[in-house]
Design brief:
The protein is mainly beta and about 120 residues long. The chain contains 1 helix and 8 strands; from the N terminus they run ββββββββα. It has an 8-stranded antiparallel β-sheet.
């Protein structure tokens, strides 16, 4: 699923590129602005503040309500738009202690109405 550069783009439900996962840097999730906002630990998505944000499973980011909020290109419900040039990566914050992950909801809805950028910013 990762590209040759070790990165994969995450799109919102409208098909806008919002962030990318850099697998070569411990699966850190960066916004296009270069800010590191979250990271993967197994299939869990954690913010640098230690908050459990959701899960990355089947090419989608899933929130605590079981809604898909972020998508890889192949799973995007909207037509994926062109990816702009990435800004230089900024220095990562130190990861806080992780909170306990909740149980993943079984009933999943196709897409969340929540803003994907706001969702990722909640991990700063």
């Amino acid at each position: 699923m990762a590209t040759a550069s070790g990165e994969i783009t995450l799109f919102d439900q409208e098909g806008r590129p919002v962030a990318y996962i850099d697998f070569s840097e411990n699966s850190v999730i960066y916004l296009w602005s270069g800010h590191a906002v979250a990271y993967l630990s197994d299939h869990h998505v954690y913010g640098f503040n230690g908050r459990h944000l959701g899960w990355f499973e089947g090419g989608a980011v899933i929130n605590h309500q079981g809604e898909k909020i972020g998508f890889t290109k192949t799973n995007c419900p909207g037509m994926a738009k062109t990816e702009p040039a990435k800004m230089d990566k900024l220095i990562q914050k130190i990861k806080s202690s992780r909170e306990m992950a909740p149980i993943m909801p079984m009933n999943r809805v196709p897409a969340s109405r929540e803003n994907f950028i706001s969702f990722l910013h909640s991990g700063k």
